[in-house]
Structures are given as structure tokens and as C-alpha cells.
């Protein structure tokens, strides 16, 4: 866990609704291993961070969204045919808090865009359901490719706090 100033967070802000960078009151992030057990680690990190920020009452919704974003990143962004030791940068979870908003963002090494189901006709299908849940439980969500030499993308979800 660590905070690394606004330079690390700058790529995450691209594509987000307009937010004043100077108004970020708190930010935390953690690297997650390329294993599905990382979803549990992401939930624990989220619980600890929200407790520090006195936002425990938002844990259920935020943790569900974090779980789905991390699961999607692991399922779709990490090549299954590449040995783990040779894979690129791991998935990274960022939590950022403004006075009235909370953003969770998950960075992964894939350039592929996330795809949500257009309808819930195929709700029983595993693929695409995660983003349907993200859309249902957050106030807004989106994604953008990383800029510059960084490969990959960030998928984010925003929660209103008031």
C-alpha cells in the first residue's frame, strides 16, 4: 500500500468526470498478483482503506464493484498462455477519495476494451455480467487506455458520497 503523489494518479484521471486534482483528500493503491486469490486481497485492502477513511458504510457496494473490476482484469487482461513469471505488470487497484466522491480504478496490462452486455437477456452468462453489476452499484463507470509508454488500461467506477 502506498500513496505516490499526483504523478502516479494523473493517468487514472483521464476520462473521469471532471474532478479537481487538488481536492483529492486521500489516495491508496496496491499491486495484486496475477492469481484469482487477488480478489480477496483487493476486498481486504478496500475494507481497510474505507475504514481508515471512515467510509465503512459504503463497503458492501464498493467491495462488490472492486471484486468485479479485479476479476475482469484478471480474466480478460492476463494472457493465460504466458507463464506467470513472464507476464507484464500486475493488476493494480487504486482508491481515491474526494470530499463527495470515491473512485476505485483498476489498472491492467491489456489494451482490450471492457465489454458490458447491452441487455440482461443473457444474464446467466458469466462473461459481461461483472460490468452490468458495476453499472448497477456505482454512480458511473468508464475506462481509458494508459497514455505514453504505459501499456494497458484503467477501468474506473465512481461513487457519490453525499
Can you describe this structure in just a few lines?
The protein has 162 residues and is of the alpha+beta class. Helices cover 32% and strands 22% of the residues.
Give structural notes.
- By secondary structure, the chain is α+β, with helices and mostly antiparallel strands.
- A hairpin with a 3-residue loop joins strand 2 and strand 3.
- Helix 2 packs antiparallel against helix 3 and helix 3 runs antiparallel to helix 4.
- The radius of gyration is 15 Å and the shape is globular.
What are the salient characteristics of this protein?
162 residues; alpha+beta; 5-stranded antiparallel beta sheet
Spatial order of the strands in the main sheet?
A: 1-2-3-5-4
Classify the oligomer: single chain
% residues in beta strands = 15-25%
Choose one word for the global shape. globular
Q: If helices are DSSP runs of H or I spanning 4 or more residues, what is the number of helices?
A: 4
Task: Calculate the terminal CA-CA distance, rounded to whole Å.
Answer: 27 Å
Helix content: 25-40%
Could you tell me the mean pLDDT? Answer: 78
Main beta sheet strand tally, sense and closure: 5 strands, antiparallel
Poorly predicted parts: 1-13, 119-125
Succession of helices and strands: HEHHEEHEE
Query: Could you say which structural class the secondary elements and strand pairing correspond to?
Result: alpha+beta
Radius of gyration, taken over Cα atoms and rounded to an integer in Å? 15 Å
State the total count of DSSP E strands: 5
Amino acid at each position: 500500500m502506498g500513496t505516490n503523489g499526483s504523478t502516479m494518479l494523473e493517468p487514472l484521471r483521464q476520462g473521469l468526470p471532471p474532478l479537481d486534482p487538488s481536492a483529492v483528500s486521500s489516495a491508496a493503491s496496491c499491486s495484486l498478483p496475477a492469481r484469482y486469490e487477488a480478489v480477496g486481497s483487493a476486498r481486504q485492502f478496500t475494507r481497510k482503506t474505507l475504514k481508515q477513511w471512515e467510509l465503512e458504510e459504503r463497503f458492501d457496494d464498493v467491495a462488490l464493484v472492486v471484486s468485479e473490476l479485479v476479476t475482469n482484469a484478471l480474466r480478460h487482461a492476463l494472457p493465460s498462455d504466458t507463464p506467470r513469471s513472464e507476464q507484464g505488470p500486475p493488476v493494480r487497484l487504486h482508491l481515491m477519495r474526494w470530499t463527495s466522491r470515491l473512485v476505485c480504478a483498476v489498472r491492467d496490462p491489456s489494451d482490450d476494451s471492457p465489454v458490458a452486455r447491452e441487455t440482461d437477456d443473457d444474464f446467466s452468462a458469466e462473461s459481461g455480467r461483472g460490468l452490468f453489476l458495476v453499472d448497477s452499484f456505482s454512480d458511473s463507470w468508464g475506462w481509458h487506455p494508459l497514455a505514453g509508454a504505459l501499456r494497458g488500461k484503467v477501468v474506473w467506477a465512481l461513487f457519490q458520497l453525499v
